[in-house]
Amino acid sequence: MNKTLINTLPTKEGFFGSYGGQYITADLKEEFDKITDEFLKLKEDKNFNDELSYLLKHYCGRPTPVYFAKNLSKKYGCEIYFKREDLNHTGAHKINHCLGEALLAKKMGKQKVIAETGAGQHGVAMATAATLLGLECDIYMGEVDIQKEKPNVDKMKILGANVISVKSGSMTLKEAVDEAFGAYLKEYKTALYAIGSIVGPHPFPVIVEHFQTIVGIEAKKQFFELTNSTPDALIACVGGGSNAIGIFNGFLNEENVKIFGVEPLGKGSKIGQNAASLTYGKEGIIHGAKCLLLQNDDGTIAPAYSVASGLDYPGSGPKHCYLKEIKRVEYKTVDDIEAIDAFYELSKTEGIIPALESAHAVAFAIKYSKENKNKKILVNLSGRGDKDVEFVLKNYKKADI
Fold first, then answer.
1. Is the same domain home to 84 and 152?
2. Domain range spanning residue 239?
3. Whole-angstrom Cα distance, residue 137 to residue 386?
4. Rounded distance, CA 112 to CA 65, Å?
5. Angle, helices 94-107/26-42, rounded to nearest 10 degrees
6. Does this model's pTM top 0.70?
7. Domain end call among 184, 209, 234
8. What's the mean pLDDT in 247-269?
9. Burial grade of 31 (CB within 10 A; 0-12, 13-18, 19 or more)
């Protein structure tokens, strides 16, 4: 395993310890080798990086700020800061890697990007990047999530994407990935699968991680400028894990920083009630990679559930599995009700409506603050909650609203 100042890199075959790799067919491996070679070349190419940097700054609005949450801090007895990825164009961190993936597709001469989405944030960001760069765009989304996240579905369609409803299985994120991969297998010569997190076969986790690491690079510098120190605790929600790995990479070699990944406990600890694969999963293979995976007693993939559609994936990125194994990151859980309470708390205390995914990180930050007074806490606020307002008010409306 190789280490740099901001990163832990996989082996040439894409393994972080025993996790990751490429469990794919031989003909697909040839295509993935081409993607790997092109990515490795472009990430060192000045013209490519200049174009991406220009778009991130002038189109997306980077750098996103680190914000001191004065009201929340006073209430809970800690200094709580937020890395405001919710202020990105399209409303979340997803645009960081979507622009990178779309540029990669363009440089490879592809005509289309194929993607999956859960909460719709990756779908909106991918549709945006595809439109900007003149690419066709197919987005696969579970029917349950289509009904739940209608505002984002409408946005994808307005942006020109072809939104394809997935009606198999639980009709959520796992099945959307299944069908997106299936479509890609038929079109890989003219299309690029623009995966939405640090999951899937090598090199997809490395590609997404590379484009998300800007979050951690910015956050480390900004936090030091604000506090003349590093945070005592760093917190991010984890589904597949792209937002978390993006900010974690800025601090992994800072031994004094405790790092927490927050998984969705959903309705409870039983199989089928949650999507906490790093907490309850066993080693297995899903979508071409080995990771900690929620499984039934017979070894089949178990259904995943969370109130946050972007977190209900039955596995996690291989790097998260490795970081748990070496005990560099602690993975905790937050249930639906705690996340909903945090959604309202941040809204009413700081005037920031968080995505339900991000609300899991906020909930744990509040819990951590109650138990660890006078600490400096940095939370990755990975997305804004516009997409969730209708769903929350319909299903979890508070008496005073």
1. no
2. 61-91+213-395
3. 23
4. 33
5. 100
6. yes
7. 209
8. 97
9. middle
* 3 within some domain: no
Strands 79-84 and 19-20: unpaired
**Phi and psi at residue 13, in whole multiples of 5°?**
-85, 0
Burial of 2 (0-12, 13-18, 19+ CB in 10 A): exposed
Distance set, CA 139 to CA 106, 113, 157, 176, 368 (Å): 18, 9, 10, 9, 37
* 270, two tokens: 């039983």
What pLDDT sits at residue 119?
Answer: 87
CB 56 within 8 A of CB 100: no
Contact 289, 319 (CB under 8 A): no
Q: Between 2 and 188, name the one with better pLDDT.
A: 188
The tokens describing 291, both together, are 């990771």
Task: Let me know whether 204 and 217 are in one domain.
Answer: no
Angle, helices 356-371 vs 336-350, to 10°: value is 80
Residue 271 lies in a domain: yes
Q: Are residues 361 and 243 in the same domain?
A: yes
Choosing from 209, 232, 262, the residue where a domain stops is: 209
DSSP lists the bridge partners of residue 138 as 114, 162
User: Do 154 and 126 reside in the same domain of the chain?
Assistant: yes
Would you say residue 186 lies in a domain? Answer: yes
Whether residue 331 is found in the same domain as residue 384? yes
| Alpha carbon distances (Å) from 394 to 91, 130, 345 | 22, 33, 18
Of 194, 220, 218, which is closest to residue 208 (Cα–Cα)? 194
Q: How confident is the model at residue 228 (pLDDT cuts 50, 70, 90)?
A: very high
The residues near 325 (Cβ < 8 Å, ≥ 6 apart) are 17, 19
CATH number at residue 239: 3.40.50.1100
Domain membership flag for residue 349: yes
| Interatomic CA distance for residues 309 and 294, integer angstroms | 17
231, 205 Cβ separation under 8 angstroms: no
**Omega before 63 cis (within 30°)?**
yes
Catalytic residues, by residue number, are 94, 116, 382
Report whether pLDDT(9) > 90: no
Question: What would the pLDDT profile of 13-22 be if each residue is shown by its tens digit?
Answer: 999 999 999 9
Place of tokens 């597709």: 105
> 46 burial class (0-12, 13-18, 19+ CB within 10 angstroms)?
exposed
